[in-house]
């Protein structure tokens, strides 16, 4: 059991895909009933959640930050909670001031987004009210690994991908469907129009795959798009990144069904590896479509490097074996 929290900041994104009106105030009130000094802030624009979370890193600030939203909100809040020391960034102003506990606040995610993959990872899809109840009555904090994109210093809670997975996230923007069905449709549409690219992947300096590539996923979280278990063996606190590379031996049309339960791994042309540093490249001189926690990175490059940040983020979840 972790120490109980004394104060909380609830950061809620009312623009997240399945946000129930009034959810943020319900969360704030439940935490107040549990004896926490609980404040609430609604996000007003992209990037706001990050700024609000960074603003919580003050002496006497909250020891719990609750992100009410989807994976984009979880990503922004996590970024705000990380100091330069956490991310290994040297260009910034150094570690920010921390709350009274002397360490960064813990993050609780409550899922009101579209994919909600991060919440699925941590809470096994427990509905948000039930997760809130558990967190309010028996909080358990664990430190999880993140991935950091070396080229821009951006950390990822879920991970990063190329190829048809990254393309699906772009395609999803034009699909009106609510919830995980949006990503399901986006994957089908992206697969329909997809051409594999010539790629190479290095893990800790060793080439693990080279050739026609359908996607690379690095993380992080086991799930992407809420439903697809792309990294079925990933463990969030083993100090390593998992990487899955899918080549062209598998028929594209079979991929969604296989990826739903992770059974693409072990099939012909699928490479699964683990390490501290992963380089993904496109080898024909053209830019790689590359996304990190749902954001497609620009400017596009031919090569990206992901390094593990072991135990960089403290998250609230159920006790081990306690889903
Ligand atoms: N008030 C706002 N108006 C418009 N967009 C906002 C607002 N506040 C936050 N955002 C942006 O909304 C985007 C979507 O949020 P989020 O990712 O949490 O939900 P989602 O896309 O429905 O879920 P998921 O990422 O799990 O699929 C984020 O990129 C965030 O920056």
TrEMBL record:
GO terms for molecular function: ATP binding; ATP-dependent diacylglycerol kinase activity. One of its GO terms (biological process) is phospholipid biosynthetic process. It holds the Pfam family DAGK_cat. The keyword Repressor does not apply. This is Diacylglycerol kinase. PANTHER family: LIPID KINASE YEGS (PTHR12358:SF106), SPHINGOSINE KINASE (PTHR12358). PROSITE patterns: DAGK. It comes from the Bacteria. Its cofactor is Mg(2+). One of its GO terms (cellular component) is plasma membrane. Gene3D superfamilies: 2.60.200.40, Probable inorganic polyphosphate/atp-NAD kinase, domain 1. Residues 3-152 form the DAGKc domain. Belongs to the diacylglycerol/lipid kinase family. Keywords: ATP-binding, Kinase, Lipid biosynthesis, Lipid metabolism, Nucleotide-binding, Phospholipid biosynthesis, Phospholipid metabolism, Transferase.
